[in-house]
Protein 1
Amino acid sequence: MGVPTGAAGRVQWDAIPPWPHRRRRVGDYGMIDMKMTVSDLVVRYMERLGIEVIFGMPGAHVLPVYDSLYRSSIDSVLVKHEQGAAFMAGGYARISHRVSACIATAGPGATNLITGIANAYAEQLPVLVITGETSTHIFGRGGLQESSGEGGAIDQSELFRGITRYRKLIERTDYLGQVLNQATMALFAEQAGPVLLSIPYNVQKETVDEDVLEQVHWPRAQSLEQLPVAPVAELAQLIEAASNPVIVAGYGCIKAGARGMVAMLSQGMGIPVATSLKGKGVVAEGTDLSLGCLGVTSNGDARRYIVEQADLVIFLGAGFNERTSYLWDADLLGGKKIAQVDRDAAQLGKVFQPDVAIQGDIQQVLGELLQRLDTDRPGTGRVDPDAASQGKPGPAHMEAPSPADGALASSKFQLIEAFFAALARCFSADAIVFDDNIVFAQSYFAVSDRNHYFPNSGISSLGHAIPAAIGARFFAKDSPIFAILGDGGFQMCCMEIMTAVNYQLPLNVVVINNASMGLIRKNQYQLYGERYIDCDFVNPDFPALARAFGIAHYRVESVADINDLFATADLRGAINLIEVPLDKHAFPTYLSAR
């Protein structure tokens, strides 16, 4: 049992059951004498946080915590590389909206976590990181894997400075309660993020009073402050006065549980909706009021509608980053009224100056707004049906490198387009998709308002999709899960498929096979005179690799193959490696470097 959450994913802390809330393994943490080891206390703290799964790899300097995990209700998951553990914890946090955890030993174990934790930091994911350290009496003396920062050793904690909300090397037990309290505050802050607790081996084995946890101030659900009436009233007036308003919905709408409210506003007032990349699925794509995805790697339909028709742009939980803004193209918002609603005050006016800015919970703001708008008045349907239909996912702006191959030849991407069409058609209600490639899904994948699409935004690290999808699978046990990535990224993380095999986790790994680092090759074609260097490579024998993993392999070479795959393959209950070939000479037209 995890921490209960409300409809919007906000923690209801007053409902936390007393520890221990369930026990599967033998052991009592030595509580008879009201004392326990620090490792036991840390595990008990994790249980209080509602953590049910921890991803990692043991090492000598963190074994006391692992021994405490053996006697706890928390399931430990053995990964193949610590980076995979961090990505899995991030995937779990993204789908669950809960605190997740990963664990590694000192030195290389901790340093291997860094890329995944940096990604979690960029995504504002609450990931608790537990690392070991050599005993304090060895500090500065050159101990094996020592990372204390003393005597020329690397400073393990310092490496995490820029990618955690809170970090601490715990050298003593007398302030342990305060440390855990600070960690809790960071994990549940409005701008949440990873927390690192690095614990020396000898400190893990010291004993402390069990009431140390009473020093932790557990957050409780709080009623939202009453919205100021004026800004909501001003937004209602802007909408009523506009001829062609448009909504740009971002991930903040999903995070706030406001999908239904956005749909009510859109349908009630006839306002079309474009989404950011992370916001795909706020409203069902492919419907009349969906303009699809707004962004430099999309098919451009949402941008054309906004530039050519809109007179009011309403940003709901959406940043205006480089991708969404077409490199901050002034034409996108020029000559229009702008409204912005975001829970994060730092987002308001960060890039553009809104005419109306409202800080607050998006669901609450929209509830107040809908009460002020006349959604039944005649003439509220403002969308040109032909213009709206342009927003349905379709051929992206792609090109081949040579005029001889044809200009904007969408046939170059026929298999990928057909794959995403089949995915949307066959799994419209409960699919979870982690996508490292992004470009094709942005234009071809019509995400429904009941599916979950997680692009590899964050720091856009290759090798993310497979472990992140595995992490999500530990929470979403019944949903079909797809990890979509290129063959270059696949070779960075494919060993984690064995983690799925070890724990019998159904998973679909979709590899776009062009035997190339596609983004690099595209840039070298567009910007460097076709001087190709270190972008092409030889792939493994994918059928043989699948046999070695003990999983199914499919290679689709035609639309008929794709239809057959979705009709006959077990995409819910098996582990599958699906290979989609792509011509390495077919590139998107957008420029990804300036």
Protein 2
Amino acid sequence: MTRTHSLASLHAAIAALLVFSASAVARPEVTVRVAVAPTIERLLAEQDTDHDGLITVADTGNRLFEVRSVDGSSLLVEGTYPLGNLLQELGCGKRLGLAEVDIAAPALFRDPASHVSYMIRTRYWDWLTRTVDASGLSRIVEDPKLAGQPARVYVPHDDPVALAYYTQIAKQKPALKLEVIALPEKVTPQFVRSINAKPGILSLAMRQDAGAAGGMSGAPFVVPGGRFNEMYGWDSYFMALGLLADDRVDLARAMVDNFVYQIEHYGKILNANRTYYLTRSQPPFLTSMARAVYEKLPRDDESRAWLARALRAAVREYETVWTAEPRLTKTGLSRYFGSGLGLPPEVEPGHFAPLLRPLAAKAGLSEAEFERQFSEGTLQSPELDALLLHDRAMRESGHDTSYRMLGRAADLNTVALNALLYKYEADLEAVIEAEFGGRLDLGNGKFSESTTWAERAAERREKMMALMWDDGRSLFFDYDFVHDRRTTDVSATTLYPLWAGMLDQQKGQRLARAALLALEEPGGIVAGTEDSRGALGADRPPRQWDYPFGWAPHQIIAWGALERAGMHEEARRIAYRWVYMIAMNGARFNGAIVEKYDVVRRSIDASAEYGNVGARFRLVPEGGFGWTNASYQIGIGMLNESERESLGRLVPPEWIFGDTRR
């Protein structure tokens, strides 16, 4: 199939399909004060015809509503999109506990692209911000993953200050029912399994704060949203980029501080700060994150000291996690490898049923009894152990799940991980040379030289080009070091080496063009090709990191890769496709921003495995979804004036008036 790639043709197609007349709906320059609760009740009763707590294109009937002011005046609002915006404004007021709110009529008709950006910048970042301290622990108590469980905070053995702080808070706030538990010096898979029945949050960085309870406050962080109410590894990098795009430098810096704390006290950047993630990391982005934040800081001794601490943590992570056993392999390249015992406790009930069913039958047990005994360690199953070895590695990769990695993740030197480690090496070389005179003091009489990192980067590049680069196809592929062969699955991760700066412009453009030909879809970059995914069926269900789904981190990496290759128009085109899709779906579905999209159909109907976080809410999105928010703010910032104007005209009449009016 031939693809049309020019921005001009894309804009023309959109203009033809989505004609919007500025005179279609009146936009009076008025503001009315309304009572929140009764207006929500009446609005839903009249306009929410499918009773889902939202106003979307799925609702039918007359799209006309009278907003009644508390002073007796009124405002008529017509159309699905502005009515959805009205419900969002009322929902924000309800969230803040307000009895009345001012509704500015022009805000209800703000163009969808600007509206999404406005909500992210002014509302969602704050709604997704958390702290593990006296003021923030109540959010942990409310977490649905802890339903019926006491609130527990686990503290590293070498942080007595934090232990004393949480112990004091537990006494001062008995209503929290807080349990404070010190971790042992050595955290083993056996220990982690032993506390799976007593899950809890892991403490993060604290700051002296005379105005806070206990004289300290937690370094804030942003959570992805929905059921993800903790600080995640690679999500945090992309969210930090979004925060920086919105000038939230202090919050992005605090997230780096939390990563440094994790390396210093837990030995790694955790999959997330929950007890069941103590033996698992996630894709490494610390040097990229620290550099991005440092670029926004003043050039003074304090900032350089902050950067030096972050780099020391990155060196430790690189040497003790990613280039040490069991993640270092015989090729000299690295793999993902999450150690652990039993089934990953964070998965939803029934996720492993297809694996457990035949094994339970063979053992003469019910699935539930087989799972219980296996999880407790009283039943051994080497076959299941082997499958779970790969499952944990896949989860550490962040790509859980994908047919590219199912059943073999621990056998792979992945393109993504090794490109990220090349980026660590290149970053450490560049920053140590530029900011620390070529020599970083690691403490205890040890130093790290920029020349060492240059040598490591060159060595990794040589190995990756030899094992992962397919010169005939101009793409990178994961390498199976157990069977000594390159895999054949085409994934969005093929662009990581270009993003990391590993290729010269000529080879980078070859890769970029081949990747776009394989992976570009109407809504952006797809996670992998349909051929690589293979046929689906009753015994082979869809996996969320495969075709036809697209994810924010892959888009951001792709944009950066294309920019590296000097393909600026192509980068903007892909960004436009993604931003357009998000804004379009936001206009259709009450402002919804979700964790993933079907980029082939440009749809939020992308339920696979765990559903689609962010799609279910009432009144107003509960913060959108972290890295999707970030990708939107970054992506819209890449566009030129003409492209932004095009986005401002994307609401067609049927989204305003519904199917009952033409």
Protein 3
Amino acid sequence: MKSRSVSSRVAARGGSTDVRGWRVADPALVERMEPRVLLSSAADFAGVGLAWRSGATTPTYTPYLLEGTIGADDSASGTFWRAGTTGRVSDGGLYFDGITRLGDGRYQRTGADGVLADDFEETNGSQFLTRDGYPAGWWFGDYDRVVGQEMEYLIQRAAPGVLPARDLDGSWRFTMLAVNGGTGASSNVSGTLSIDTEEDRITWTGTTGTVPRVRSDIDTISTRGQIATLQGEYFYLSADGGTLIFADMRTSDDVVYVGTAIRVDNDVTPEEVQGDFLLLWSLGDNVSGSGRTQFLQRVLSVESDGDYKIYDLDEWDDGSREPLERGEWRIEGDSLVLTRDASALRYALRIGRGGDTLIGASLTSGTSVTAIGGVASRTVSNLPPPPTPVISIPSVDSLGRPVVFSSRTDEAWYVADIAAKSGGPTPTGEMRVWIDTKNGRPYAAATSDAGLVLYSELSNGVWTYRLLANDLVSGPAITRSLAFLVTPSGQVNLFGLNASGEVVRYWQNGSTNPAGEYLYSASNLSVNQLDPRGLPTPGYTGGLEAYTTPWGGLNVAGLDSTGRIWTVWWAPGQPRWFVSNLSAIAKTAPLSGDITAFVSPWNGINIVGVNSLGEMVSTWWSPGSGGTWKRANFTSSTLGPTVSNATLSGFYISPTRGLNVVAIDSTTGDVILYWWNVARTGLGWTFTNLSTATGATGVSRITGALLGLEASDGSVNVFGRNAGGATIRYAVSGAITGAWQVQNLSAIATAE
């Protein structure tokens, strides 16, 4: 991925996220949540690679090996070897310190240096860990300051307990790139290798091209399936037993090679091989169009209508879907055959078990048949879909990166750095999160330097992203104060302000793209609705709150510089949007900080803020109030504590028909819940100190902005962060006056 595309977005780590962006679309989606800890597991891996750079007379080639561990936190550690005269030579640790998995089956390496130079112009990786559902993958690097490239084939290593006769013996289909160290000539070879551990031999048979040797003598076999030969070769068995990667690390005979082999699938169905693959061509001088070794990264799309298309991966990242070539495909025995339109060109790729891995076999052009090298791996994990998410909330991790916490039907908590996992831009402001009722999938929206970005988690757990302006010919910008609402019909609406303070709306327009994603329309409400009728755009100075009414009304509320509440609103049946100064209508004294808004099923609207004395004040409306806006001071009526004006979150509880606002005590720092329900009709509002109720001390104390919401089992939840940045959950099942519990989600959530 070139710096202009995905990799630059992944590298960005700046920005901040407003925790008041925490919202869920529909409390009915929240299921019962019980504490359960699932730990991500570390994975041992191996890689075989080849780096080349141009020289004054002949290219320089460096075969190498990697052995290491990808930790549960995606950190990487291990050992690196270069080829030497008599065999492999240790060169210390890995040239990278971790990986960042992306949503389209790719990954980036953090802290990566090159084997032959320090800087890359471009890098790319296809995921390879069996734990993540990928049987084999690859890595590609294109140097910046020198003419050269490097590539690797990678697998997660088999666990101890490999039985050679069962797991290694027999026939494997292979592809290799072989290099003559004396002449610098490189060529592809494909064929069959047969392992006989009883006789300590490996027999090489070239189907296309000439094999460097016809027999290798096995020296050692580890309990994990690593084979070392007397000829200086190393073989590694994958965790699923379907792939071998190998490299010749002895240079004294002037020939070295790097390759991969698979157990082929002779019974694969067309349906199993359909889909998109990340393809790395590893082409020798005899095939490369440049006349020298060349590594090319592509996207291979095997379509259900019998067509195939091959795309340049860089252009794919830039949004182009113009194929480099196209044609028809079919299955012949253990091979996927691609025939280019209007030419005699024909590719054959061997098919691995399950159809998730392809390796190069041959290229036929007229009467010429040449071996081709390379690996193609699925863009999407073959793991079963993760448990369905039932609640998702935004937060910020201890390093300041925006993350999404989710609880699923398996009753466990998960956390995802969605910018890193999707390859999308890093949020620079508020992040809003919801689960769309139409498909049950979590979504997040945020402002970014690239525009308004929508992240979404696919059914297989992969996060992707879209820039919403790309849905339109020219989408208006939202740069701050992002808010969202979901109408009773399930339509998602996003509101915010542009650089001029104008109100902008994005909304789902009822259409979908070919991938089934909901498309959006957009409008600058200030320019298109308010200005033509002489209505003022409120001078909003802080965050916005968007809310919908049971009859489908759309409302955006916020404070101006004098602390007055303004709403920009629309009601079904109205052709235009309107503006109202609710502080003037309800005679509400100026407020400061943030406000929160929520609506009850009996059509009661509540907009709550904090006045200059730190008192919590509600500006409210309901049909029973005679259709007029009124105000109420919860702090004075309950003799409750004053609160911080930047920590409010209001929400409705359906079982008890309750109204709730949670905030931080401005004196003690305790979490205070102001609440009312129908059982208190005639008694008025009251409050509960949640810090006392939970017994929260030390790291379990919430110190920042809050999110309150209800679960469908009647539990009440309050989320916030402690002083160290960990995300904390307070929860109670049943009545608010029941036994509250506390959880540190940052400590128990499984990283996705």
